[in-house]
Design goal:
This protein has 756 residues and is mainly alpha-helical. Among the domains are: 2-168, no CATH class; 313-490, no CATH class; 602-670, no CATH class; 682-755, no CATH class. The protein has 32 helices and 10 strands. Strands 1-2 form a two-stranded parallel sheet. Strands 3-4 form a two-stranded antiparallel sheet. A hairpin with a 7-residue loop joins strand 5 and strand 6. Helix 9 (219-231) crosses helix 10, helix 10 packs antiparallel against helix 11 and helix 30 packs across helix 31 (739-747). It is globular, with a radius of gyration of 31 Å. 46% of the residues are buried.
């Protein structure tokens, strides 16, 4: 430390004093001190010029040149952030490549960029000093000093070529990016107001900006919120009444009991499987020109529902979907689970064309679908962006993309004949494994530009897990996919647990702690509550990857149980409610809206599992065509998750409420407000029919007195009685327009389609 202070005190031209922040100065001091403490250091004149202008003897004949250390720590990050975007790669601007020493010394179209020992003769320094480069923003005075002293001291190079992934910059993530670091269980803040660890972390952030939580919501709001959130359907009037009674006696025990009841309901799996199917891009037709029906893909949907209901550990849940057929080849359910891999669209025409070159392109597109879905669903990394070049924003190389491609090289779409548990023969849509083809790193993703053969592997930048699988190019499909599955689900993989707990938070609150559920890289969001994210991830790991444990932690917290009432003073500080000073109201998603209408109207068919219902007519003329029809049949009045999800056959009712296209993964649904939504809830034939059925139900249950009928409608739809003004207005409306018309109005109301 003494020598560090002496060196810093002699830093040329007062560079240390001009550093723009205390943090910069501390980091620089630690950097110099680290150099001086190195046992393998030899001092060079270039380091003396760079740091202080005076040579100080520290050690002799070491293995590492101090100037090389300085280059890697100080010069390389500047070049990465400000220069290499344009001046590197296959076609650098001006033919100037600054990523390696030979190319940098050679220079570009205008001559040599760097003349060692002579900044004034170096075009690089001339362009920096004049302000021409970098073109978008000039270097700070500290950065300019570092570059000038580096050239003056001999332009000694360090790591060659520069490792662009070493440090995070303002334009890309490095190895030190937050999501790639190990999960660390944080200390829970001490706060007497906090009833749970979740609340303690949230209160800590609110205190930091002078905000407070909202009061706890009313009992009726809580029971409706929990029921729709965990089951996807509203509570019955009897359930609401019973909960309100228990809540008045012991609110905490009433909430705990209700949560346990809901999480053990088979409807929990039906609700939360829909969320997972969005991520899995699940569809029941193959898409593209042919769009043939896959009437055997529903087995995977049912597997997801059952797995969630029995709280299958999440690591096992994921391993089965990647490699269940090779981990447990004799287990039918494990084979069915691999429907995840092939749940997306499949290009039959492209796969069957005559041109071998075009078939190779189609195959690469298919592999990209696998890689993109696996990377984003389980790791929150857009690995697929590295197909044609190194990732522009995250520390993922093009070679690593093809190494992951090699792990999935044996995966093919298709159907498999299996023997079920009751000894019946079934045919399911799942992975049909084949001998993996050779995998090459492809220049610009072009199958005709094979650069080098690669072996199976992962991404090296993820801390805690080894991206080297120890497999060669001849490894079997089973070894490849098992290695990939084990690498992804490893307890030490920091992304695996973080990504899924963030998804759960996102679905409970409408926004995640990281607001980009599929992207934890540089282009995604950063956590609003990083300690809370790591706390939940730690809890998931320590609980044996039980998702229901995380559900309980979240929905039993005061953060979740808050009122949704708007508070002007809080919105002035945090308009987006990123700090969770209230529970945001949430609109019912498309499937939940349809299921709620069916439930309230008394028309829900509770059949569990099995083949999907079809709300279309279909015929085949070379391709398969679908015509949507509105059937009035108990068969189609099942929960919407059991609908046949056709890629080219879209439901008008579901589409208008932002039901996503099943051709692509949908980690975060859009929530729009359009006139078409109101028009649909007034004029759609299904809605009109359900309004009639609700009116019939109400007359049957409450008799012929209009006031009693109105009260029953309110109880079924809202879980409450109307107040006097509402009752008087509704009775008058029914007298003028009829009970069915009132039911249509109720279906179109904010209170019906939103959850407070």
């Amino acid at each position: 430390m003494i020598w560090a202070n002496r060196w810093i005190s002699g830093f040329n031209a007062g560079g240390f004093a001009r550093m723009s922040s205390i943090r910069q100065r501390k980091e620089f001091r630690r950097f110099v001190d680290g150099i001086l403490l190195s046992r393998t250091l030899r001092v060079t004149m270039s380091l003396a010029v760079l740091i202080g202008g005076t040579a100080i003897a520290v050690a002799e004949d070491g293995a590492v040149d101090a100037a090389e250390v300085v280059f890697d720590q100080s010069i390389a990050p500047i070049l990465v952030e400000h220069c290499l975007t344009c001046h590197s790669g296959a076609e650098p601007k001006g033919n100037l490549d600054l990523s390696g020493q030979l190319a940098a010394n050679r220079g570009g179209d205008t001559g040599s960029a760097i003349v060692a020992g002579a900044p004034g003769e170096s075009l690089l320094w001339q362009r920096i000093e004049s302000g021409d480069m970098p073109p978008k923003s000039q270097l700070s005075s500290d950065q300019q000093n570092l570059i000038r002293h580096w050239i003056q001291g001999g332009a000694v190079w360090g790591t060659d070529p520069i490792n662009i992934y070493q440090h995070t910059t303002s334009s890309r993530a490095g190895y030190d990016w937050w999501s790639l670091q190990p999960v660390q269980r944080p200390a829970i803040p001490r706060d007497n107001r906090a009833k749970s660890a979740v609340d303690a972390f949230v209160l800590q952030r609110l205190d930091g900006v002078g905000l407070t939580m909202s009061p706890r919501a009313a009992a009726r709001e809580i029971v409706r919120r929990l029921s729709i959130d965990l089951l996807g359907i509203p509570p019955t009037p009897g359930t609401v009444q019973e909960f309100e009674q228990q809540f008045s006696l012991d609110s905490d025990r009433a909430i705990e009991s209700l949560i346990d009841q809901l999480l053990t309901s088979p409807q929990y799996g039906q609700r939360w499987a829909r969320h997972w199917l969005d991520v899995a891009r699940f569809g029941e037709s193959q898409g593209f020109e042919r769009d043939k029906l896959r009437d055997n893909s529903w087995y995977y949907r049912d597997w997801v529902i059952d797995a969630l209901n029995r709280d299958l550990p999440y690591d096992e849940f994921v391993r089965m979907q990647i490699a269940g057929d090779v981990i447990r080849p004799d287990d039918v359910d494990s084979v069915i689970a691999t429907g995840f891999m092939v749940a997306g669209a499949w290009d039959e025409v492209g796969q069957s064309q005559q041109s071998d070159a075009m078939k190779q392109v189609v195959r690469q597109d298919e592999l990209e679908d696998y890689i993109g879905t696996v990377g984003q669903a389980f790791l929150g990394l857009t690995v697929n962006c590295a197909r044609c070049h190194d990732h522009k924003f995250d520390p993922i190389s093009q070679k690593e993309y093809y190494r992951i491609s090699a792990t999935l090289a044996g995966v093919r779409h298709g159907s498999r004949d299996l023997i079920s548990g009751n000894q019946q023969k079934i045919n399911v849509y799942a992975v049909v494994p084949r001998q993996p083809e050779e995998t090459f790193l492809l220049g610009r993703g072009n199958p005709n530009q094979k650069i080098e053969q690669v072996s199976p592997g992962g991404v090296a930048s993820i801390k805690g897990v080894d991206g080297e699988f120890g497999l060669d190019e001849s490894a079997s499909d089973a070894d490849r996919r098992q290695s990939l599955a084990n690498w992804i689900t490893d307890r030490q993989n920091p992304l695996f647990a973080r990504v899924i707990v963030n998804r759960l938070w996102h679905y409970h609150f409408g926004s995640g702690l990281v607001d980009s559920p599929n992207d934890f890289g540089f282009s995604g969001g950063v956590p609003s509550h990083p300690e809370l994210l790591d706390y939940l991830a730690s809890e998931l790991i320590d609980s044996g990857f039980r998702l229901k444990h995380i559900h309980r932690l979240i929905v039993s917290s005061e953060t979740y149980l808050q009122s949704s009432r708007y508070r002007k003073e809080c919105a002035a500080v945090d308009s987006g409610n990123q700090l969770f000073w209230r529970k945001d109201p949430m609109r019912l998603d498309a499937e939940t809206l349809r299921d709620t209408v069916l439930t309230v109207a008394g028309q829900m068919n509770s059949q569990y599992g099995g083949p999907s219902y079809q709300d279309f007519e279909t015929h085949v003329h070379n391709s398969q065509f679908y015509e949507m029809v509105d059937r009035d049949s108990p068969e189609v009045y099942r929960r919407t998750i059991y609908r046949s999800w056709i890629r080219s056959g879209r439901s008008h009712l579901l589409d208008v409420f932002d039901c996503p296209d099943p051709s692509t993964t949908a980690p975060k649904r859009s929530v729009t407000t359009t006139p078409l939504q109101a028009l649909t809830l007034m004029n759609n034939s299904f809605v009109i029919r359900m309004a009639d059925r609700l009116a019939t139900r109400v007359v049957h249950e409450s008799g012929n007195r209009t006031a009693d009928q109105v009260t029953r409608v309110y109880l079924l739809a809202y879980g409450r009685n109307p107040d006097q003004l509402e009752l008087a207005a509704a009775v008058g409306f029914v007298g003028a327009h009829g009970l069915s018309a009132l039911c249509r109005v109720i279906f179109n109301s904010n209170e019906f389609i939103h959850v407070d």
